[in-house]
Amino acid sequence: MFLVIIASYLKLAQVRLQQRHYPVSEALLRDVLKSSPNNRQALYHLSLLFATTNRSYESIQTATKAASGCSTPRDFCAFLHAHLADLLHTNAMLELAVQNYRKALDLEPSLLKAHLNLGAIYHTQVRHLLTCEAYVAAYIQQVNCLQTHPLIAAIRCSNTSNYSHAWEHYSEALKLEPSNAILLENIYKLQRVFKISSESALEDFKVVLEFLKTLMSHVDPDVSFRYSLIFILIFSIFEYADSEYF
C-alpha cells in the first residue's frame, strides 16, 4: 500500500508539473521525500521543477543527490547523470558537467545527447581532438542523426582542415534534409575555403562542381530551390574565373 501511495503521488506531481502548477507539484514531491528521502524519481522531478522556476542552486543540489551513487538500473542512472550534467552545463560548471556526461556514457554508451553535449563543451574549451571524438561517437550511435553530420563537418573544417571528410558529412546531412538552408550556406562557404587554401585550384574547383551536381540530384525538385543552386554554381564559376589561378 505504501508503494502504491508513493507511486500515485509521483504521478500526480508529474502531471501538476506539466500543467505548471508548481507549488502543488513541489508539495507532493516533498511529501514523497519525507517518506522516502532517497527516492530518485522524486529527486529528479524536484530538480526539474527547481530548474524550471529558476532556482539553479537547489536544482543542481537536488539532481546531485538523485545521481549520487546510482548504478542500477543503468539506463535510469545514466539519465540522472546526464540530467545533472545538463544543469551544470547550463550554469557554466563545465568540468563537473564533463565528469557527469562521462559517467552517463560509462553507464549507457548509446546516450546520443550526452555525446553531443560533451562535444559542445569541448568545443567551447577549444579542445579540438576531444570535440571531434565526441561528435564522431554521436555519429556512430546514430548514423542518420541530422545533428551529427554538420557538427563533424564544421569541426573538421575549422580545426583540422580535413575538408574531404567535411564534404562527406555535409553531403550525408543534405540527404537527410535536402532543403536545409544552413547546410547550403556552409557548403558554399566550404567551397570558398577550397579555393582560398588550395594549391591546385583547378582540381578543387572540379570537386566543387561535382559536389554541386551531386547536391542537385538529392534536392527536392522545387524550381526556385534548383535555381538557387544554379546561382551558387554560376557565381562560383565567375569567382574562379576572376581568381589569380586562371
UniProtKB/TrEMBL annotation:
UniProt key word Transmembrane: no
Coiled coil is among the record's keywords: no
Domain of life: Eukaryota
TPR repeats: 78-111
Family matches, as Pfam families: TPR_11 (PF13414), TPR_16 (PF13432)
Keyword terms of this UniProt record: TPR repeat
InterPro entries according to UniProt: TMTC_O-mannosyltransferase (IPR052384), TPR-like_helical_dom_sf (IPR011990), TPR_rpt (IPR019734)
Signal peptide: none
GO molecular function list: mannosyltransferase activity
One Gene Ontology CC term in the entry: endoplasmic reticulum membrane
GO biological process: protein O-linked glycosylation via mannose
Entry protein name: Uncharacterized protein
Source lineage: Eukaryota, Metazoa, Ecdysozoa, Arthropoda, Crustacea
